Amino acid sequence: MPALFNHTIIASIDRAVSAEFYRSILEADEAPNWGPFTNLTLDGGVMLQFAEPPVEIQMQHYAFLVDDQHFDRDYQRLVSAGVEHWADPQMTRPGETNTEHGGRGVYFKDPSGHALELITKPYF
Question: Could you tell me the pTM of the whole model?
Fold first, then answer.
């Protein structure tokens, strides 16, 4: 069997708030929670686990591939909610999306300060 990505833990200031933000943006399914984790699942069985570590949270980058219709819905959610967003990871093009790599993309931050990216075409 080839290696497949199964799950990751996303450090959160408030795991419930973070999980709800990701659930809304990614249209993810809720999953059973246990111990210190609030869980979501994505298509393909990938689980996102949100936890509140007892240390300072270091910013991470998470990129998600979505289709054009999902991107349109997500972008409207971001704009409607007043979420600051950029066309580039350097945050020099505020309020824009990009059309690099043959698709569309947008960068924004989650409630804990992690950098998120939505793209409609993979980089390769």
Answer: 0.94
